[in-house]
Amino acid sequence: MLRHCHPRQVCPAPRWLSYLVLRVGEGLRSGRAARVHFSAQRRRGSGSGGVKRPGAKQRRTPRRSPRGSVPWRLIAVACVLAMAAWFWRPRGSGDATVSLWLQRARSFVGETRTPSITITFPEGNSLSTMAERLEAADICAADVFVRAALGTQVTVHGSTFVGAEGFLFPDTYQWRQGTSAARIVATMVANFERRTAAQVHALQRALPSVPDYLFGDSGAKSEAIAAAAVALNRVGKGAEPEGPTIPKELLWNWVTFASIVEKEAGAGELARVAGVFANRLARLPFEPRRLQADATRVYAALLREHRSVRALAAPDAFDTYRHAGLTPAPIGNPGLDALEASLQPEVHAYLYFVRHPKRFSHVFSETFAEHRKAVAAWRASQAISP
Length: 386
Hints:
Helices cover 48% and strands 7% of the residues. The protein contains 13 helices and 6 strands.
């Protein structure tokens, strides 16, 4: 079985490499003995006592290897190639991605790789939930994955962030047992960037229609529109784009807003719930402009219980019942539908919603009086439920 070693440890060579080294040593010894034997024959000559007769042609002795000798030159070449493949393998995390011929060499001598493990992350999973699923599948330790996801810098669409939560795209992946946490994080972030490339491209061309609350303030929006116009002009002239494709703050707020929508919405309600939160942030009659999302209060409680999960902000800063605006960071990892709904929320006048008494959906209300009736109906259904 392929053994994984710490980057600072000396990884022992596999059996097939040790075998080749031993064989090339035998070949070198036998080859040297053969050269000594042939050299002695040439010095003695071919039966004339070493005296060359005038006018006679000297018969050359054919250089044949003794019976049972090893083709040491071929083994030496194979050994050099094998050693190069072994020591030039990808490092840094202990799990090497080897080429096809190297896998065949291992299988020839009895070494086989562990089978791939398929794992699926649903939309909206938080970092801690993903870590638990990875550990349950025996792919990576949960605490190691959390530290790798929060302690690394990730670059997404030209912008660099500290921490990967929000950019760990929920999808189906295949990894082997013992896969490094750094490789898992890099794979999921690269998948996020690839799957959202079309949305980012469209967003860059439609910055004037993006809501102000995704920029933080109107001044940042004006600067972003001007910078995007210059970038699009350069691309239109055939130049390579410079810097981020969209502003860093916009990308961060977009993912944060989508993570809250993903946590709160039921099946088929992403755009409608996004419209409710957009109304709470943008409409003047709703004061103070707090999202009042239950999922953010749950996430804040999780941070108080596991303080090592995130150190970017205090747990209370994620409670949108206490603080206006968006949370300081994403509270989960949204899927593609939630990201699209956050950019194109449903246009309506709803400001409130509560769980439906009988279905896995919500009852939406425009006024607080209507909302109180819906809440009373939900509480009554909970009281009589078995």
